[in-house]
Amino acid sequence: MDRREDNGTVKLEEWYLGQLVEVVSKRPTDLGERRPTWTRELLVKVMARFTGVRVHVGTMSRALKQIGARRGRPRPVVRCPWAKPAKNKRLREIRQLLENLPPDEVAVYQDQVDIHLNPKIGLDWMNRGQQKEVVTPGQNEKRYLAGAMNAKTGLLTVVEGKRKNSWLFIGQLDALAEDYPDAKRIHVILDNYRIHSSKITQRALAKYDGRIVLHFLPPYCPNENRIERLWKDLHSEVTRNHNCRTMPALMRNVRCFIRKRSLRRTLKLRKLAA
Asked: What is the mean pLDDT of residues 180-185?
């Protein structure tokens, strides 16, 4: 009746779409192809090889839409060089520390973040046919933040510096000792960056006579450091695609973000305590 009797059988059946989901979840190189990323044409070819059904590129577009596939940027990761039992043991020790933390002790997640005057470029909504421009100052300038987030309350201790060196980290430790004067012991959970274990840092730690204890995460485990999420939010809300022409202007926005975040957290804690 609709004059489509000669179109042949329906190709985008459930079994075909299910196979497409499985194929898209892999890399082309996993399936014997040389190209490292998928194109619709390559998907047509690989799906024909696996299913015996060859579809048009336009039909593949509809199939990708039906399974909810999208084009996105892969997340770069570096594998932890430790053996899995050793990695799990260290993570288990840190979790047990947090679960059994005495009331007179404090645990914080610590990390550094780079602030670049040349903005990070990220995704943004644009009208069709428009490409927004992000003006860069040209010569880059950097500042660094060292931050520590209380594992229980989420409150922050942040220091700034022009260099990411041992003195920046020592300033962080001094700020923690000042923020938690009544804590019998301050446990700092952090990564293996070299400034955390330098000779200068070791001498600075000695003056606290065991009151500040460092707990190193396994290498390349950023997801285990909760303050990393804060830095992602900082880049999303402040540094990505920013239009500040000077570093003082950019740092004002950074400090404003941290103040607002700290205020929200403080108000939430007061509300929970009421």
From this structure: 95
- 208 contacts 173 by C-beta, under 8 angstroms: yes
Nearest residue to 240 via CA among 123, 72, 158: 123
| Helix segments in 38-162, DSSP class H | 40-51, 57-66, 84-99
The tens digit of pLDDT for each residue in 100-136 reads 999 999 999 999 999 999 998 888 888 888 888 888 8
Kindly give, in sequence order, each residue whose CB lies less than 8 Å from that of residue 45, ignoring residues fewer than 6 positions away: none
CA–CA gap between residue 193 and residue 207 (Å, rounded): 21
- Write out the two tokens for 245: 């022409």
| Residue 127 structure tokens | 């009208």
For residue 105, give both structure tokens: 């002790």
Determine contact, residues 156/183, Cβ cutoff 8 Å. no
Looking at residue 225, its amino acid is N
CA nearest 237: which of 76, 71, 119, 156?
119
Note the helical H segments in 141-246.
166-179, 199-206, 227-234
The mean pLDDT value for 74-101 works out to: 92
Q: Does position 138 have pLDDT exceeding 70, yes or no? A: yes
d(C-alpha 177, C-alpha 184), whole Å: 10
- Say what angle helices 166-179 and 199-206 make with each other, to 10 degrees: 20
Largest CA-CA distance found in the chain, in angstroms, rounded: 89
Q: What is the pTM of this model?
A: 0.80
Least Cα distance to 148 among 104, 192, 116, 179 occurs for 179
Spatial strand order in the sheet of 156-161: 156-161, 142-150, 105-116, 185-190, 212-216
Cα–Cα distance between 218 and 69 in angstroms, integer?
33
Rounded CA gap, 232 and 158, in Å? 16
Our CA dihedral for 79, 166, 190, 231, rounded to 10 degrees, sits at -80
**176 contacts 183 by C-beta, under 8 angstroms:** no
